[in-house]
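Lab notebook, design round three. We kept the backbone fixed and only want residue identities now. Task for the bench partner: fill in a sequence for the structure below.
Input structure tokens:
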């Protein structure tokens, strides 16, 4: 109970960010692989930014796409007002980290803004995400990412994901950053070069966001921020099937035991132990003390809803209370099984197979 109430208090303390940049150039990096269905929508949204187009460069770095992604980019390039360039990875180059590294090498401007091809930003996204960076206050910022969808499975993901974004924002606010999302982050190119980019973890398929976060934190403590404003949100679709969700979460969580940070190790162990203990506790009460189970579960439910409702209000999500109840019932067991599977399992992503 106290954990979720503490999260709520810290979330409310994070100040709304209103700093904007409309005078310093920005390079947007978009690594892509097989994104023909979404890339045009993103590039058109960038074309509608309230930002000087002569100060905006967009680099689409193609990781050997096997569909019509590049054709879609070429079609969009005919009418956009900003500088749009495509870079193709060489035969011996593959993966998002390599793509981002190559993008940094080709970037015209020092302010780098990163996103994924399946996102859609608002019209003030570029100016707000680079506001603190342009003033020299920060070396890196993380931004809000929102999922959308209508099915029960998608709504549960929306709830969970808003909590994860909120937790990451709080950890940054407390100067103990643990997570961010590569679909919406920005940094100084000089800072990226100073920490060696993704050197020493290029071989790891995932973690382009959190490994960089950890490196910049080590070299520039106190110079990482979270842009807490709805106008900086980028949105993406929740997974529509259990299989897609499972593969995505395995990929996300598989990087946690590869961090060298003691804080991340401890957080992983504590989180796993907490969910395992909670699941066992609820089952034990159900068998022995049904009334105690009802009271304990009610208290936990109120504290959880207090935090998740605040983060979902920020994102403008309207979620039924029965979905909060369902999430609380299944999440302890889901988290434990997912944690175990991430240690021993493998996954496929964008047509490639990865193993532990």
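Proposed sequence:
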């Amino acid at each position: 109970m106290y954990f979720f109430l503490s999260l709520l208090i810290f979330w409310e303390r994070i100040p709304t960010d209103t700093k904007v940049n409309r005078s310093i150039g920005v390079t947007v990096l978009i690594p892509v692989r097989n994104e023909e269905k979404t890339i045009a929508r993103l590039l058109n949204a960038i074309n509608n930014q309230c930002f000087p187009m002569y100060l905006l460069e967009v680099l689409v770095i193609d990781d050997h796409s096997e569909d019509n992604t590049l054709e879609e980019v070429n079609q969009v390039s005919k009418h956009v007002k900003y500088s749009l360039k495509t870079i193709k990875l060489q035969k011996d180059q593959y993966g998002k980290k390599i793509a981002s590294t190559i993008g940094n090498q080709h970037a015209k401007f020092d302010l780098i803004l990163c996103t994924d091809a399946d996102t859609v930003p608002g019209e003030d996204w570029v100016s707000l995400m680079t506001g603190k960076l342009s003033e020299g206050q920060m070396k890196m910022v993380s931004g809000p990412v929102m999922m959308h969808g209508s099915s029960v499975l998608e709504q549960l993901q929306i709830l969970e994901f808003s909590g994860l974004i909120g937790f990451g924002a709080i950890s940054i606010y407390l100067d103990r950053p643990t997570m961010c999302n590569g679909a919406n982050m920005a940094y100084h190119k000089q800072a990226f070069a100073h920490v060696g980019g993704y050197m020493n973890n290029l071989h790891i398929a995932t973690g382009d966001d959190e490994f960089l976060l950890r490196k910049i934190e080590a070299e520039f403590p106190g110079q990482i921020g979270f842009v807490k404003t709805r106008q900086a949100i980028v949105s993406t679709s929740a997974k529509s099937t259990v299989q897609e969700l499972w593969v995505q979460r395995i990929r996300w969580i598989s990087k946690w035991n590869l961090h060298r940070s003691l804080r991340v190790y401890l957080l992983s162990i504590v989180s796993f132990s907490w969910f395992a203990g909670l699941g066992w506790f609820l089952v034990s009460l159900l068998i022995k003390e049904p009334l105690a189970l009802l009271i304990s579960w009610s208290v936990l439910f109120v504290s959880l809803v207090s935090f998740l409702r605040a983060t979902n209000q920020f994102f403008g999500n309207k979620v039924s209370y029965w979905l909060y109840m369902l999430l609380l019932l299944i999440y302890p067991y889901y988290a434990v099984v997912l944690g175990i599977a991430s240690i021993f399992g493998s996954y496929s992503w964008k047509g490639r197979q990865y193993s532990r």
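Keep this in mind before ordering anything: Residues 272-276 have pLDDT under 50 and may be disordered.
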